[in-house]
Design brief:
The protein is α+β, with helices and mostly antiparallel strands and 341 residues long. It has three domains: 4-70, Uridine Diphospho-n-acetylenolpyruvylglucosamine Reductase, domain 2; 75-226, 2-Layer Sandwich (Uridine Diphospho-n-acetylenolpyruvylglucosamine Reductase, domain 3), CATH 3.30.465.10; 236-340, Alpha-Beta Complex (Uridine Diphospho-n-acetylenolpyruvylglucosamine Reductase, domain 1). The protein has seven helices and 22 strands. The strands form seven sheets. It has a five-stranded antiparallel sheet. Strands 1-2-5-3 form a four-stranded mixed sheet, with helices on one face. Strands 15-21-20-19 form a four-stranded antiparallel sheet, with helices on one face. The chain is globular, with a radius of gyration of 21 Å. It starts with a strand and ends with a strand. It binds uridine-diphosphate-2(N-acetylglucosaminyl) butyric acid (EPU). Residues 126-127, 200, 239-240, 243-244, 263, 276, 278-279, 282, 287, 300-302, 337 line the site of uridine-diphosphate-2(N-acetylglucosaminyl) butyric acid (EPU).
């Protein structure tokens, strides 16, 4: 098949560094190319999977079909405050681009690994901001109708690490570009941009740099992430391995009787509480745990790490042990944040 690479190694294409191959690998730059790839998959009855930055992925074996990868990576400014990023733009390069131009909204999301096209899929978030706060439009290719669709952010069913692309459009939509509505740092005539530095130690770090600016927030976030999270280029990992569980407020209250120091973030209606999975895993004694080729990051208990040569099964076995232990100790069922292929 034209433009399809056979037996393509994926070891460098996933941040956990897991060895696997794709029967075929196909890159697209345009919607026309994507259409041809999907047509070829249909004709040959091949399954397909879109691999973006591979930073939230566990590869359990060789993929028997076509791994599709976006290649177009242009950033444009269709309007003064509207930034358009094609799917293969490196996320952090997009953040740097916006910060350099004094456009606020993405700076708290600095240094998140991956590509821009994946940002709306799992509604990436960090330090009090989420992609959904700025996404105005998502462009995707509909693999059933072959249409190019523009969907408004408000219609993307965004939730905590969740969106329509993980729900109703899963396995159907392939994101080709994302538009972000940003706010100028120095709005002429006043108004101005509201910096978001309420999260954890971000405020103090930003003050230490001389107070809030987009550049200072970006630098502070990068410093915090570099201190807590392992660099995937050195230690294979997929960032947060589990989601932070949301539990009924009554259950949180009961747990607080036994663990008064348990952190928790109540929902707006007060009915549920989001508990940091990192705290549960840490308190259960897993932080820094090592077993053969896999372990729990010593500085952030939510991050599972490949100590060298790990297999997907070894990682998933460790995850199962942690889930069972947290369930036994706290009565909370953790769910995985990573995608398993
Ligand atoms: N904590 C511990 N032990 C640890 C780490 C943290 O007890 O080893 C406690 C901390 O004391 C704190 C709480 O857990 O009270 C939260 O920790 P942190 O601020 O590090 O954030 P998180 O909830 O573990 C989430 C996101 C991260 C994001 C950070 C910062 C999820 C699943 N993870 O982690 O996102 O960078 O907040 O906003 O929501 C990712 O999704 O891959 C990711 C890294």
């Amino acid at each position: 098949m034209t433009n399809f690479s056979d037996n393509f190694p994926l070891g460098d294409r996933n941040t956990f560094g897991l060895d696997a191959t794709a029967r075929y690998w196909a890159e697209f730059r345009t919607t026309g190319e994507l259409r041809d790839i999907i047509l070829a998959c249909r004709e040959r009855h091949l399954p397909w999977y879109v691999l973006s930055g591979g930073s939230n992925l566990i590869l359990t074996g060789n993929f028997p079909g076509v791994v599709i990868h976006p290649a177009a990576a242009e950033i444009t400014l269709p309007e003064a405050t509207l930034v358009r990023a094609e799917a293969a733009v490196v996320w952090d390069e997009l953040v740097a681009w916006t910060v350099e131009r004094g456009l606020g909204g993405l700076e708290n999301l600095s240094l998140i690994p991956g590509l821009a096209g994946a940002a709306p899929v799992q509604n990436i978030g960090a330090y009090g901001a989420e992609a959904k706060d700025t996404i105005e439009t998502v462009e995707y290719f509909d693999t059933e109708t072959f249409d190019t669709v523009r969907i408004k952010g408000a219609d993307c069913a965004f939730g905590y690490r969740d969106s329509i692309f993980k729900g109703a459009l899963k396995g159907r939509a392939i994101v080709t570009a994302v538009e972000f509505r940003l706010v100028p740092e120095d709005t002429p005539g006043g108004g101005g941009y509201t910096y978001n530095i309420g999260y954890g130690d971000l405020h103090d770090r930003v003050e230490a740099l001389g107070g809030p600016t987009l550049d200072h927030i970006r630098r502070a976030v990068i410093a915090i992430r570099e201190a807590k999270l392992p660099d995937p280029a050195v230690t294979g990992n997929a960032g947060s391995f589990f989601k932070n569980p949301v539990i009924p407020a009554a259950q949180a209250e009961r747990l607080r009787e036994a663990y008064p120091e348990m952190p928790g973030y109540p929902s707006a209606d007060g009915e549920t509480v989001k508990v940091p999975a990192a705290w549960l895993i840490d308190r259960a004694g897993w932080k820094g745990f090592r077993c053969g080729t896999v372990g729990v990051h010593p500085k952030q208990a939510l991050v599972l790490i490949n100590l060298g040569g790990a297999t997907a099964q070894e990682i998933l076995n460790l995850a199962r042990r942690i889930i069972a232990d947290v369930e036994r100790k706290f009565g909370i069922a953790l769910s995985m944040e990573v995608n398993v292929l």
